[in-house]
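fyi for ur records
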Amino acid sequence: MKKALFLMLVVPLFLAPLLHALSYPPPDNEPAYLTDDEVMRVGAKLYLFHSGTEDVKNAIKIGDVLTVMREYPPDISGVTKETGKVKVIATLGNYYLEAEMIEGYAHPGFLAMKKAVASLITARVKPKH
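which gave:
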């Protein structure tokens, strides 16, 4: 009786990770929970975060146009998707850049890339009233 009870308690512990290991390809459309308020479209100004290393500082300059990429986690899919372009308009300290969307769209968490150098899109620049 104890062995049966033990098996009934232990077997779900081994099966649970297997059930959660299923992965699905990314959807063609962006998820519905990303509302228009979070979408940065052409003309929107946004902040880019980078590592602050000399490689990044030498590669990305004011006036450069970076490609915006939506990357899906590699364990889900090896797919990346280009969603637009941003133009760097200012540097903000050692780790941030200010940019403007010139084509397509972006969300916080997307990457702005120039060749092998990338920066993370963090937020929209809030206009001062």
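Residues 21-26 have pLDDT under 50 and may be disordered. thats all i got for now
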